[in-house]
Amino acid sequence: MALVLPKITWPAGTTTNTLLFILPPTNVASFDYVASRHDNVSSAGVRESIHERIDQFYEFTMGWQTVGTDIDAWATFMAYALQGATFDYYPDATLGAHAVYELWETNGKAAFKQLGRRSFVFKMRLAVSWP
Description:
Number of helices: 1
Radius of gyration: 18 Å
Number of domains: 1
Largest sheet: 8 strands, antiparallel
Structural class: mainly beta
C-alpha cells in the first residue's frame, strides 16, 4: 500500500506556491463540526434553537518535521495563512480533488520535539463562499 501524502497550494502573485508534505498528518479526527446556534429556554421549559450554520474543521498533528527546508516551507505557508487567506488542501497530492480552507488558529508555532525535529498542531476551517 502506497503512502498517501497531502499537499497545500496557495496563490503567490501570478504563480502558485505548493507545500508538499514529507510525512502524513497524524491524530486526524473522522469529523469535527461546530454549530453556531443560539438556544433559549422559555419559562415553560421549552427550548428554542436558532441555527446559523455548522462549521467543518480539519485538525491534525505534524509531529516530526525536519528543521531546514521542511520547516522553512511550513513557515512560508504559515506567514501566508495567518493573514486569514484561503488555500487549497489536497488530501492526496497525486489527485486533483481538493477543498478550500482557511487557517483557524491565529498563531503558528513549530515546537521543539527533539534535536533537528519540530512538531505542531494544525487546525483549519472549511471556507464558506458567499454569493
